[in-house]
Every structure is written in structure tokens, then in C-alpha cells.
Design brief:
Enzyme class: transferase
Strand content: 15-25%
Protein name: histidine kinase
Number of helices: 9
Subcellular location: Membrane
GO molecular function: protein histidine kinase activity
Catalytic activity: ATP + protein L-histidine = ADP + protein N-phospho-L-histidine
Length: 463
Amino acid sequence: MKSPGSLRLRLLLAASVSVAAALLLAGWGLGHLFERHVTRRAMAELQVHLDQVVAGLEQDAAGTLVPLRPPADPRFGRPLSGLYWQVEAGEATLRSRSLWDSRLDLPPDPLADGQIHSHHLPGPDGHPLLVMERLVTLPPRLGSRTVRAAVALATAEIAAARRAFTADLVPYLVVLGMVLVAAAGVQTSIGLRPLGAIRRRVGAVHAGTRSRLGDDFPAEVRPLAAEVDALLERRAADIARARARAADLAHGLKTPLQALAGDVARLRAQGQGELADDIAGLAETMRRHVERELVRARVAAGQADARADPAAVVGRLVEVIRRTPDGSRLAWEIDLEGAPPLRIDRDDLTEALGNLIDNAARHAARRVVLRCEERAGMACLRVEDDGPGIPEADLARVRDRGRRLDTQGPGSGLGLAISADIAEAWGGSLELANRPGGGPGGGPGGGLVAALCLPLAGSSVGA
């Protein structure tokens, strides 16, 4: 079910209300038109009856008017049938049997000879009547007298005809309303397609398979796409400036740190070892922070359409580490055949994997294994060693900034933290776990598994 905030639902509700209102108005209008049509037909029928009433008048031997040939409609002979006629000739009044002992109370309406008037009057049973009357001067053979003839029909028949018409009309209006609402749904779907296309293209930009939305949209949507593309252009410019600032910062700090290293060496040569150690410690702290912040700045400015081949990156890294004393003594097992491309900058992947592989080479006893596992839009690059591993109590804090469990060897304690930062910046994660086993001194003894999990190229995982 669509949420209340759905634009599609709002449009469908508006269309449904509009269709319902239009059909109600149409139903009322059609009923009114039908009633007018039936009324005109009734008046035409009454006029025929009126002509028959006047034409059927005759004069008996006593000179009294009599209805020799009354209208043939049987309702005139049935009491209170709803169809009546009446003739006023001076003091005498002739009327249909349907009036029984009642009469039509015609208004004092001045009429010209032959002129027809119509009225709405109460009937003998209290129900309203449609009355048609005419003032007629009879021919000389009937005494040239003037008579007032009237015929009436109960309007209940007209109302009943309208109700029957409305009852027949309602099912068709319901079907028509359903068809119109369905048509409105189709129209809404067609009208909202450009917004769906924008949503998909924004997702593609997020996933890195597109860099811009483009301008192949309808005129009403094109300004929105143009604004989004302009925003992407500004973001690209900001990324370029961020990378440039990171590079400038790296170059700007490199020389002062090298100068401090030289000063430390001279102080030690002069026998001021304590001061030299303090300055060296401060310089190392500065270097660690600068190094991490430079990595984070570069990663934060990464391109959304970046791609990296993990097999190629691992191949180059292992080739370099094999030349080091730590790497040359190990057996390397690489199982990355068919590893999919990842959505990460190649240099960032090199940095993150380099830290993990270097860490494994320093602590492994005999071998290091590198393999890849896929998980629902993600790929996990596993770096496994057979070294002492990490005590379980330290696993949660080994990635803290500057945390070093092995203080004897080289390194700044930033490798795992930097790898974790890089993975999280690209929508992934760094997972650390000990291999099954048990070792002395509280260590696990089975080695460490570092899994760098990153989204696949073209996916939007973690975006």
C-alpha cells in the first residue's frame, strides 16, 4: 500500500474525488434533463387530451353541453387515477369520472380565446398536478358559448419515471467511474515515469554507473534534472579542490617533519638524548595525525564512479612485500581468480589492503592466504595469517587511533585504523577475527583474519 505521502496516491485520490463529483453532477444533470423531457412529453399528451375533450363536446335536446366523445384513455374513468379532465361552461361543470366528486380549482387566469396555460396545482388527493387549460369559444351549433377546458396529470408519474431512469443510470455511472479512475491511474503512472527515471539515475550516480542525470527528460522535469546536474558539477569541483588541498598539505608538512628529524639526529649527536626523544615523540605524533587526516581527506573526496580490480591491486602489493625480509620468508596463497571489481578508488584500496597485508607479513609464522568472498552486493577481501592472533579482549580496540599491541616492531599503530576509515568511507567495513586455535599467553594462537568488505562496482550498498 502506498504511504500517505505518496504523490501517486495523492493524484489518484484527487482524480477519484474529481471523477466522483463529476459523475454525481452528471447524474443529477441527466436526471433533470430526463425529467424535463418527460414533462414535455406529458404536456404534449395533455394537449392531445385537451383537444379530444373540446372536440367531444355536444349539445343535447335541452341545450346542455355533454361529453359525447370523451378521451379514450381508461384512466379518465378510474377514480383518482391521476389523469383528469374538466370543462367549465358558465355555472355548469363537466368533469371526468376520475375526479369523482372533486373538481380542479383553476386559478382566475385571464385567457385569450384558444390560448393554452399550464399550472401546478394540488389534486383531489392532495398530490401535485400538472394542469393544462384553454379558453375555447364553441361553434354556433353549440351555442357559441365560451368554455374553459382543462386536463391534469399527477406529477408523481413524472417523478416515478425520473427515479426509474436514475436507478437504471446508476450502474452505468459506477462502471464509467471505475473506468475513469483506472484511466486516471494509467495517466498518473505515465505522468510520473520521468520522476521514476530521475530516481533511477540518481541511484546510478550514487552507485557510480553514471556521472550525470542528463537532459533527455520532458520539459517540466528538465529544470530539476539540470539543477541536480549542476549540484553534481559543484560537488566534482569541491572534490578536486579537496584533493588539491590534501596534496598541498602533504607537501607542506613533509619538509618541516624532515627538518625535525634532522634536528633530532643532531641533538642525539650532541648528547641531548632526552630532548631528542621528546621532539621525536612529538614529531611522530604529528606525522601520525597528519597521515591519518590526509588519508581521510582523500577518501572523503573519492569519486562515486571509482572502480578497482582487487586481483591486480593484491598482485602488485604482494610482489613488493615479497622483496622485504618479512615477506620473503612466507608462503603466499592467493585465490582471487574471478574476484569482481569494487566500488573504491584504486589508490585507496591499495592503501587499505597494503596495511592489512603488511600487518599479516610481520606477524605470520609461515604463510599468508588472500581470498575473496561475495555477500549480497559486497565483496570481502580476506587476509589470513598463521601468527599469534590478537587476544579477544583487544579485538574491539585494536583499530583505535594509534593503538599498538606490538610495541617492539616498526609501525605507527595507524594501519588498521586507516584501513577501517577507508572501508567505511566507501560504504564498507573492516572485520577482524581470530582463526580457530589456542595459543600460549592468552592469545588465540590460530592466526588473524582481516576481512576488508567493500561494495561491488555498480552497486549502491552503503551509499
